[in-house]
Task: inverse folding
């Protein structure tokens, strides 16, 4: 666990008594082209949710012993659905969706009914995530959204109200991720303003700003917590993030120092998605990235080299 206090690099201030434990851009039309081309998918056990068509969300029943079939179709959005997230709250299986129609919908997966709708001056919604921090700390079901209006908002589903709003990015926010440690207290966001920001949800403070990409930043992911410190990335600490950009690179950053550790080059087009692989013996310190060049690449943070490439997709 980090015992070091990270100072805010924004106008927001953090009390010196507080200890924080922390276990030019491409143009707008290029962003739209990329997002319209890139369908998003998320799965949970034998459920898989996809957005194969504009305005629709299909829930697939995945049984490996037979062909997958569409179990339910959720309709309601009037434009492209850009992002989804799944969450179990009590006995409820919930699905949140964010759309170009500037709305967030929350659905009951079991019966397909719309549970809640948020349309409070959001702008186009590019990312939605259920907040683990609000669940673990307050037992609240809260949605976090990233949108074209440059803000990150937290929404209480039960009360249908805005809880928090983070401002700091100068252009649209493309992706958000919660830390897999400290109960999801920390949030990373990436933007078309070429920056990555680290936020403390508990204090509503911007802790760090990461700069280095030369193109719109599309995606970000937190590293998992590691008990074994022997494989610390490039003389940094065990807390890192990785990001993917329209500059075709994947970059690894030291969270504590906001320092760029590694730049992976190999993709020939926009990087659309990045993900740390679980810290197991076979993939310790590895990152996976997907690109508009139709390739999926695996990177080793220890050797700083590409270790494998998967090809087969016919489109981005």
Result:
């Amino acid at each position: 666990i980090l015992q070091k206090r990270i100072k805010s690099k924004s106008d927001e201030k953090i009390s010196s008594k507080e200890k924080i434990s922390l276990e030019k851009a491409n143009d707008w039309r290029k962003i739209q082209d990329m997002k319209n081309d890139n369908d998003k998918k998320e799965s949970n056990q034998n459920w898989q949710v996809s957005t194969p068509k504009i305005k629709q969300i299909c829930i697939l029943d995945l049984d490996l012993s037979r062909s997958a079939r569409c179990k339910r179709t959720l309709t309601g959005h009037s434009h492209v659905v850009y992002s989804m997230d799944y969450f179990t709250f009590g006995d409820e299986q919930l699905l949140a969706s964010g759309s170009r129609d500037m709305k967030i919908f929350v659905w009951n997966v079991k019966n397909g009914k719309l549970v809640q709708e948020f349309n409070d001056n959001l702008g186009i919604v590019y990312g939605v995530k259920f907040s683990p921090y609000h669940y673990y700390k307050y037992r609240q079901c809260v949605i976090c959204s990233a949108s074209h209006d440059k803000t990150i908002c937290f929404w209480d589903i039960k009360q249908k109200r805005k809880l928090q709003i983070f401002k700091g990015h100068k252009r649209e926010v493309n992706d958000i991720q919660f830390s897999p440690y400290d109960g999801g207290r920390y949030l990373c966001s990436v933007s078309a303003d070429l920056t990555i920001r680290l936020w403390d949800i508990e204090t509503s403070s911007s802790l760090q700003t990461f700069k280095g990409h030369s193109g719109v930043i599309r995606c970000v992911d937190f590293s998992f917590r590691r008990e074994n410190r022997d494989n610390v990335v490039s003389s940094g600490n065990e807390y890192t993030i990785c990001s993917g950009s329209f500059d075709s690179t994947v970059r690894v950053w030291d969270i504590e120092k906001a320092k760029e550790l590694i730049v992976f080059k190999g993709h020939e087009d926009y990087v659309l998605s990045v993900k740390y692989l679980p810290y197991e013996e076979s993939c310790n310190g590895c990152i996976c990235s997907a690109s508009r060049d139709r390739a999926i690449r695996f990177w080793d943070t220890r050797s700083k080299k590409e270790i494998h490439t998967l090809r087969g997709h016919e489109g981005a």
